[in-house]
Write a structure and sequence with these properties.
This is Spermatogenesis-associated protein 20-like TRX domain-containing protein. With about 675 residues, the protein is of the alpha+beta class. It is built from 25 helices and 24 strands. The longest helix has 18 residues.
Length: about 675
């Protein structure tokens, strides 16, 4: 492609393709693009965003579609556009730089770099007039004060490298007492009135809720359970949850879960499905059961494509945020008639003044309706009417890690909700992702329309997919998922583990593209960190793998979890998934092996229903898996063998005995 042309039309990222018609001469991040900057002796203007980002669209419309702005960008810079979801390694490096230089981060991210990738100025969103001034100032500084730019970029790169050392050692051991203290600290931060933690904006604390539920199962803590249920109920009844079609938005802009930032992400909904399914299985709560079922339907019907799951639904429709979802009382009456319209306005908290913008309201469901048949009729009619409104765009990119999260969630929801079709969806997704994204033994990050991208997978991809496949193996007994899952763990150990420090991990492989620094972020955020995800995968592998390999996985799991002790001790809200893995670890983790015919065994069904979060459950004939070696039925009856770590109970043959062995009331 000739220099000066926009190169994004053939990208495997829908976000990049959205910019293919810009007058900006966008490049993708390639060695050739960096070489062009060196040849022209101009800085790189790096713009990072993602398809569902509202302010990314705003900046695109204001600046990147503007001929004057594009002319200034093209004249003085090599312009590179990056999808943060496709290249999280680049996003991590330059987000660290943006936060270090400005004190805050976010998207769109706008960074100016030397031709070799060192940042010297970073920011986020700029309105057109400010952006034009910034472009002129940076270009002038590059031409006239190059020495200052080089000094600044050297200093920033050095500071970034010093920040990339990961966690120091010396944390307390991962024992029940550490988990208890971490949970106690988390509970002190709860918003007991509105649910959740901290002030607005509020993000769904998915992994933290799962950790609290696991803590309740281990300790019987009513406080932990009540906290999880309070937050989960507030979210499920609030505007952050789509009361008509199911599925959660990315976050709430207020502290009461009323007004969402309307984008819907695969990763949020997969993580929340796992928690709500676990909550439903453990307590039988009807709200948990309904939300889990509707969220699973949202994943399969609204994000499913070619047996895999796409990345997100946009926040905007026709350039207006929330256009698809918000209602006025008049609009309800127009669709439903006077009586049902007034009833629906009361039920869904749609007011004359509105809870959103321009007198519109986002639907909530503060209480369940008394008339369920009327509710279903009204909801069906509103959803049908909504389908004729402008619809949000969908980012059809398939991300390996997020599909791994979805496989795990769907497999666990299939058990919790007794819906075998969800296990079928998880299995089909696994087949498709492994078949497309595993290329010559190495995993790729993403694909689009059946074409796999060039970007290498990172640690979270290997770990999340490995956990998904090992979970699928437990649910199906199919050894192909065991073998592939263990192979991914082996690749992670070979290419992502820090050879200098046991238990520490890099987010990029040792043979990946060399950047200004090699990212290694152990803190959980909107998604679990790669390090906490690989801790879970190793924990499973240590008990599912053949004995000759299991010891290596167990040692790596222990070392990895030990690195999280400092997070759990000092910043437990930044370690939700770490805490969930730790809660499983301090119980053993629990393993339940049922000698049986898996297709007919009521004892195996009971084991899956009764098992605490993080437990490992397998079923089959004697010798069919590592946990069933030398274990058979007892006097012709199916038998369950319960172990905690390396210590095992006597086998039991009834559901009641199994519940007693697990300490679960029946």
């Amino acid at each position: 492609m000739s220099p000066g042309a926009n190169e994004l039309g053939g990208a495997t990222s829908p976000y990049l393709r959205q910019h293919a018609d810009n007058p900006v001469h966008w490049r993708q991040w390639t060695p050739e693009a960096l070489a062009e900057a060196a040849r022209r002796d101009v800085p790189i203007l790096l713009s990072i965003g993602y398809a569902a980002c509202h302010w990314c669209h705003v900046m695109a419309h204001e600046s990147f579609e503007d001929d004057d702005v594009a002319a200034a960008m093209n004249a003085d810079f090599v312009c590179i556009k990056v999808d943060r979801e496709e290249r999280p390694d680049l996003d991590a490096v330059y987000m660290n730089a943006t936060v270090a230089l400005t004190g805050q981060g976010g998207w769109p991210m706008t960074c100016f770099l030397t031709p070799d990738g060192r940042p010297f100025f970073c920011g986020t969103y700029y309105p057109k007039p400010n952006f034009l001034q910034l472009l002129a100032a940076v270009a002038q500084t590059w031409r006239e004060r190059r020495g200052e730019v080089e000094d600044a970029s050297d200093r920033i790169a050095g500071e970034l490298r010093s920040m990339a050392g990961g966690l120091p050692g010396g944390g307390p051991p991962v024992r029940p007492e550490l988990c208890d203290a971490a949970v106690a600290a988390v509970l002190q931060d709860e918003d007991t009135v509105r649910g959740g933690f901290g002030a607005a904006p509020k993000f769904p604390p998915s992994a933290l809720l799962e950790a609290l539920l696991r803590h309740h199962e281990r300790t019987g803590s009513a406080h932990a359970l009540a906290t999880a249920e309070r937050t989960a109920t507030a979210m499920a009844r609030g505007g952050i949850y789509d009361q008509l079609a199911g599925g959660f938005a990315r976050y709430s802009v207020d502290d009461s879960w009323v007004v969402p930032h309307f984008e819907k992400m695969l990763y949020d909904n997969a993580l929340l499905l796992r928690f709500y399914a676990h909550w439903a299985r453990r307590t039988g709560d009807p709200l948990a059961h309904r939300i889990a079922g509707e969220t699973a339907r949202f994943l399969v019907d609204d994000l499913g494509a070619d047996r895999m799951f796409t990345s997100s639904l946009d926040a905007d429709a026709d350039g207006v945020e929330g256009l698809t979802y918000a209602w006025t009382p008049t609009q309800l009456r127009d669709v439903l008639g006077e009586d049902d319209g007034r009833w629906a306005a009361t039920l869904f908290a749609v007011t004359a003044t509105g809870t959103f913008e321009h007198g519109t309201s986002v639907l909530q469901l503060p209480v369940d309706p008394d008339d369920h048949a009327r509710y279903e009729r009204v909801r069906t009619a509103l959803l049908a009417a909504r389908s004729h409104r402008p619809q949000p765009g969908r980012d059809d990119k398939v991300v390996t890690a997020w599909n791994g999260l979805a496989i795990t969630a769907l497999a666990e929801a299939a058990v919790a909700l007794e819906r075998p079709e969800l296990l079928g969806a998880a299995t089909e997704c696994a087949r498709a992702v492994v078949g497309l994204h595993l290329v010559d033994g190495r995993l790729r990050r993403a694909s689009l329309g059946g074409r796999v991208g060039e970007s290498a997978a990172i640690l979270e991809d290997h770990a999340a997919l490995a956990t998904g496949l090992l979970t699928l193996h437990q649910a199906t007994g199919d050894n192909r998922w065991l073998h592939t899952g263990l192979a991914l763990v082996d690749v992670a150990l070979a290419h992502f583990a820090d050879p200098q420090r046991d238990g520490h991990w890099f987010d990029t492989a040792d043979d990946a593209e060399a950047l200004v620094l090699r990212p290694a972020d152990p803190f959980d955020g909107a998604t679990p960190s790669g390090a906490s995800l690989i801790a879970e995968a190793l924990q499973l592998a240590a008990h599912l793998a053949p004995a000759a390999r299991a010891g290596r996985y167990a040692a790596a799991a222990d070392a990895t979890l030990a690195t999280a002790a400092l997070i759990l001790d000092r910043a437990p809200r930044s370690g939700g998934h770490w805490l969930a893995v730790a809660e499983a670890a301090v119980r053993g983790p629990i393993q339940i092996a049922v000698a049986c015919d898996p297709a007919r065994s009521e004892l195996l069904r009971a084991a899956r229903a009764l098992a605490p979060g993080g437990a490992i459950v397998v079923g089959g004939a004697a010798g069919s898996s590592e946990l069933l070696l030398d274990r058979d039925r007892v006097d012709g009856a199916d038998a369950a063998y319960v172990c905690r770590g390396r210590v095992c109970d006597l086998p039991v043959t009834t559901s009641r005995e199994l519940a007693a062995a697990l300490g679960v009331p029946v």
